[in-house]
Description:
Number of domains: 1
Strand order of the largest sheet: 1-2-3-4-5-6
Bound molecules: zinc ion
Structural class: alpha/beta
Number of helices: 6
Helix content: 10-25%
Amino acid sequence: xxxxxxxxxxxxxxxxxxxxxxxxxxxxxxxxxxxxxxxxxxxxxxxxxxxxxxxxxxxxxxxxxxxxxxxxxxxxxxxxxxxxxxxxxxxxxxxxxxxxxxxxxxxxxxxxxxxxxxxxxxxxxxxxxxxxxxxxxxxxxxxxxxxxxxxxxxxxxxxxxxxxxxxxxxxxxxxxxxxxxxxxxxxxxxxxxxxxxxxxxxxxxxxxxxxxxxxxxxxxxxxxxxxxxxxxxxxxxxxxxxxxxxxxxxxxxxxxxxxxxxxxxxxx
Length: 268
Ligand SMILES: [Zn+2]
């Protein structure tokens, strides 16, 4: 069902209940990745892309089609409308713009993007130290506090696939650190989670690719053609590399630490 139009998302089924979508560069150079996870009681959409115009990026049509496809394959799930929860890796515009396209969908809850709204929806008893679990129906997702790039950032861990959905926090791209203390605490929190997980952590998938396949070489912001980009998945041990890179920082605005698979940038 993907590839009908040049602006349609690139759809990859990661398993029978998990979809990776990428907004194409033709519709927005940020080309963010989105994820749709199906449970027996509801689906979870992580992020909505950079565009609030269905004609430019047909998010609503695509999500409806994917839900219909999954429900056809899972006829025992008969709740109608099948609930959809729309949550976010963080509140930056290129990950939440498509919220507007889904807000009026029947059975749909769009989680707010302030820290208070994220904390309230998932029920964090303390923030950001606590990890909470969120049940999609025979499928549990752990929600880990993740501020540092952005104040309301979270990381989702899907026990079924073993994927940590790391948003703009850890990805093959520039890691823009807004609050160094919070960011370091988030990486340490993710390492603790990885080392004592509720299910094996297989890989990390973030929200962008900005690195080329050449180690340490990124594409500049605004690049539309990335013919030789690095693969998206990162091994769990990348978290140790990120922590080590933070140790090299002096905390000067604009400072960059270049690693093979990512570049840490201290945000101005
Ligand atoms: Zn961001």
